[in-house]
UniProtKB/TrEMBL annotation:
Protein name: IS4 family transposase
Lineage: Bacteria, Pseudomonadati, Pseudomonadota, Gammaproteobacteria, Vibrionales
Organism, as annotated: Salinivibrio kushneri
Amino acid sequence: PSMVKNKTTTKPTARWVFLKFEGIDTLELDGQSFITGVREHQRRLLKLLGQLYEAVYS
């Protein structure tokens, strides 16, 4: 699989998937947790991973 930016692959590695989630943070405020920094490409990836992942990151 290619790690080159903007190059497509049909067999992404687990490392590639994990790297795509960089920049997502958790904000704790008054006892509540909020997920911040989710970008559009990450939302698309979450949709591909399924409802469980979408629920965790929403």
